[in-house]
Amino acid sequence: MNSVSRRWPHPARSGLPTRSIALMVSVLALLPMTPARATTYELTGPNDTVVGEDQTVTTVYEDTLYDLANKFSLGSEELIRVNPGIDPWLPGVGKKVVIPGRHILPPGPHEGLIVNLPEHRIYYFPKARRGHPHLVITYPVSIGKMDWRTPLGLTHVISKVRNPTWIPPESVRKEHAANGDPLPARVPPGPDNPLGAFTMHLAVGNGTYEIHGTNNPLAVGMPVTHGCIRMYPQDVAQLFPMVPVGTPVRLINQPIKVAWVNGELLLEAHPPVNDEGQSFEPDVDQFAQLLQTAVGDSTVAIDWDYAREVLKRADGVLATVGVEADLSGANDGSSGTAPAAAQAPASAPEAPATPAVAASRATAAADANR
User: Fold this and answer.
1) Is 10 one of the catalytic residues?
2) Is CB count within 10 Å lower at the N or C end of the chain?
3) Containing structural domain, residue 195
4) Which entry of 10, 120, 201, 212 is annotated as an active-site residue?
């Protein structure tokens, strides 16, 4: 099964400050074959489920994790979570920083825009043109926080505006006034406008929910918006002209994604989010039940100890937690029961399992005892 897509380079950025150019040159010197900010991928067939690649870069003295997150199309929290123990503002020279670039495509129909809230990521599946490959383009985003809920479900783009004027809702103005930071009734286009230079209004909420840029790129990837979907300025500038009015937009809450690649079960886990868009510590047992549901009736040998470790870490890095199970030799016919060594491991979830999952646990336990 060929499930890893070919990577296309991201269009070149212009207007980068000298510091960023120097950073780009230094990293490319370390990784001459890997273009930076590769977010556009060609899908070679219906079985393509994984895009991108992970890599490691070595820091230079001017690096911050926030700069690197922006450069490699990641949210800041996403990069910080994968590199614990590294100071995000002063990582130091010569530190090895993991860049988690692989993503399992979200479930459901691959069309239009899909925003996965726990992942803090948006996927765009443009309509394929005759004679051209199918593509997916993906970017990090911020989502709603506190009681400003980013709604779930299917909606669509109803309008697009360049250089928008921000009219803060009355509820937002009251919040700022209560905090001693009053807002004007209208914020014109410019550097003080939190919508950035581009915005796309969604049908949900009568157009009050938007996908837009930001004047605070450091916050991309965090739950800091008033319900809207916020993107890096350069990312929304690329996405805006490609998305026509009427494009479907699906907002999902999928903390766990799985994919089969060459007989291996890949798991991608992110911190779950609540109805208010806030991330919280995962309940590993509930996560494990979600994994069972994602696997379905597939006959798979899962290493539950390692799977639970990945679920608890929930850092978004893909991990191989199982393989297709071959049960043809599990019973030689001399007994009606499996060997004692093939019982489910103690760390496996306690929830009732389908026959296929129960078999996978037994196979995993047998493998562990060989």
Assistant:
1) no
2) C
3) 112-252
4) 212
